[in-house]
C-alpha cells in the first residue's frame, strides 16, 4: 500500500485503490470478460467454417499429400498399438475378472506411487497352493496326500515361470507401447487437433478477406503454418524412430 502522507505534504499521494479501473467491484473483471468474448468469437468462426464445409460443401485449405500420408500412417500406428495392448493383456490373463482386478491393483499402485506394480495370482499357483495345503493335512502316510504335494509343487513352479514371462512381456513390450500411446501419440493427436482448429479459423477469415483487418488474416495464416510445422515434425519423428521403438 502507499505510504501515509504527512499533514505538510504539498502533494499528498493518492489513496491506493484495490480495484483497478478494469475491475468492477463484485463482478467479473472486464479484462477476463473481453478475453472470454474473444474466445467465443474464435470458436464461432471455427464452427461456422466447419458447417460451411460439411453442409455447404465449402472448400477448405488442403494439406499436401506427404502430410496426409504421414497422418494416415500415424493413425494406423495408434490403432495398432491400442489393439495389440488389449490383445496382449488378454493373452497374459484370459480371465476377464482377473484382468479387471489387475487393472484396479495397477491403478492403486500408481496412486500410491509404487514403482513396482502388484501382480495377480496365477491360476496354476492357486491350484498348487490348494494341493499342497490338503497334501500336508492328509499327512505322509497318505498316498493321495503325497501325490497332492508333488503335483502342487509342480504347479507352483509353473506359476513362477508364468510370472517371469508376464514380467518380461510387461517390461519389454507392454510398457514401451503404453508409453508410446500415452506420450508420443497423444502429443501428436493434440497437435493435429490444434492444427485443424487453426485451419478452420484461417479459412473463415480468408473467405472474408477485405471485411476483416489484413493483420488479423496474416496472424491466422502464421498460426496455421506454425501448427502445421509442429504437427509435421512430431509425426515425422515418430515414423522415423519406429525402428528404435521396436528395438526397445
TrEMBL record:
Keywords: Coiled coil, Cytoplasm, Endocytosis, Endosome, Lipid-binding, Membrane, SH3 domain. CDD domains: BAR_Endophilin_A. InterPro entries: AH/BAR_dom_sf (IPR027267), BAR_dom (IPR004148), Endophilin_SH3RF (IPR050384). GO terms for cellular component: endosome; glutamatergic synapse; membrane; podosome; presynapse. It is found in: Cell projection, Podosome; Cytoplasm; Endosome; Membrane. One of its GO terms (biological process) is synaptic vesicle uncoating. Residues 52-248 form the BAR domain. GO terms for molecular function: lipid binding. It comes from the Eukaryota. It is a peripheral membrane protein. Residues 214-241 form a coiled coil. Belongs to the endophilin family. This is BAR domain-containing protein.
Amino acid at each position: 500500500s502507499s505510504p501515509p502522507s504527512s499533514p505538510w505534504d504539498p502533494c499528498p499521494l493518492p489513496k491506493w485503490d484495490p480495484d483497478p479501473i478494469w475491475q468492477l467491484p463484485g463482478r467479473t473483471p472486464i479484462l477476463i470478460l473481453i478475453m472470454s468474448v474473444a474466445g467465443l468469437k474464435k470458436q464461432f468462426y471455427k464452427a461456422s467454417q466447419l458447417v460451411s464445409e460439411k453442409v455447404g460443401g465449402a472448400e477448405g485449405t488442403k494439406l499436401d499429400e506427404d502430410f496426409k500420408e504421414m497422418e494416415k500412417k500415424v493413425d494406423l500406428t495408434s490403432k495398432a498399438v491400442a489393439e495389440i495392448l488389449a490383445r496382449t493383456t488378454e493373452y497374459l490373463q484370459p480371465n476377464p475378472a482377473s484382468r479387471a482386478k489387475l487393472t484396479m491393483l495397477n491403478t492403486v499402485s500408481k496412486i500410491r506411487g509404487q514403482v513396482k506394480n502388484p501382480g495377480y495370482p496365477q491360476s496354476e499357483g492357486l491350484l498348487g497352493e490348494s494341493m499342497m495345503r490338503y497334501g500336508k493335512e492328509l499327512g505322509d502316510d497318505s498316498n493321495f496326500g503325497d501325490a497332492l504335494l508333488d503335483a502342487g509343487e509342480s504347479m507352483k513352479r509353473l506359476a513362477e515361470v508364468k510370472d517371469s514371462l508376464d514380467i518380461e512381456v510387461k517390461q519389454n513390450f507392454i510398457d514401451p507401447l503404453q508409453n508410446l500411446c500415452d506420450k508420443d501419440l497423444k502429443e501428436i493427436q493434440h497437435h493435429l487437433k490444434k492444427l485443424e482448429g487453426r485451419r478452420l479459423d484461417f479459412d473463415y477469415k480468408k473467405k472474408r478477406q477485405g471485411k476483416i483487418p489484413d493483420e488479423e488474416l496474416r496472424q491466422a495464416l502464421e498460426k496455421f503454418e506454425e501448427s502445421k510445422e509442429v504437427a509435421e515434425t512430431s509425426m515425422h519423428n515418430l515414423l522415423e524412430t519406429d525402428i528404435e521403438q521396436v528395438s526397445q
